[in-house]
Design a protein that fits this description.
Layout lengths: L1 H20 L17 E4 L1 H7 L1 H38 L5 H55 L3 E4 L13 H11 L17 H13 L1
Parallel strand pairs: 1-2
């Protein structure tokens, strides 16, 4: 409701100025620029799709997702193979020895689940970081253009029912973002979990028990 009142007030101000200008020759024919209202509209979805920064981010996110997915597939395959081997050993091992191997396998499964959770947390941190970075660059471009072009108000296009094309300044914002931030490098500390693979963790656990 506050936003509606604010915009309505600005529109009323603009309409009021128009009425004053057309009231008659007694009023000055030179507009009072201090009372003008200058609007702009930005399509953020276009910026997210077409900005060089976001294209670079998308490529890195996809590469990271594919890398993590491949590592998970390898670990799952290793667990399945270990489980198959364990089932074959069931008739060969003494009950106590078999139970010990089962415990080791359970530890591997737990390590794998913990690793998966850490990877999910990592990916969420990356996504949050790139969203914040994009928002920062977008805000910087908007602030610069607002000051340079003396805009009174810039609205998001998705929040406007209809708008004249000449009010759309998306291209100018896109050009400014492409100039300011044509690339973006995801921080390396966000793309490294440091979590051991399930197989390595299990091997280490087994060596510790033997000692």
């Amino acid at each position: 409701m506050k936003q509606t009142s604010f915009v309505s007030g600005l529109v009323a101000l603009a309409l009021g100025w128009g009425l004053m200008v057309s009231a008659g020759p007694a009023l000055s024919q030179q507009p009072d620029t201090s009372r003008l209202v200058k609007f702009g509209v930005v399509d953020v979805e276009v910026l997210e799709r077409d900005s060089l920064m976001n294209k670079d981010i998308t490529a890195q996110i996809n590469a990271l997702r594919n890398k993590l997915s491949e590592e998970v597939k390898q670990e799952e395959a290793a667990l399945r193979k270990t489980n198959d081997d364990l089932q074959r050993q069931k008739v060969l091992l003494a009950p106590d020895a078999f139970e010990q191997e089962v415990r080791k396998f359970r530890e591997r499964e737990q390590a794998f689940q913990k690793n998966m959770q850490e990877r999910n947390d990592q990916f969420n941190r990356v996504r949050l970081d790139v969203r914040n970075a994009f928002a920062t660059e977008l805000n910087k471009a908007l602030v610069d253009i607002t000051k340079e072009q003396q805009f009174t108000l810039i609205l998001r296009r998705s929040q406007v029912l209809t708008v004249a094309d000449f009010l759309d300044i998306t291209k100018f914002v896109l050009d400014r973002m492409n100039k300011n931030a044509p690339t973006y490098k995801i921080p390396s500390n966000l793309t490294q979990t440091g979590a051991p693979q399930a197989g390595k963790a299990a091997a280490k656990s087994g060596e510790t028990k033997k000692k």
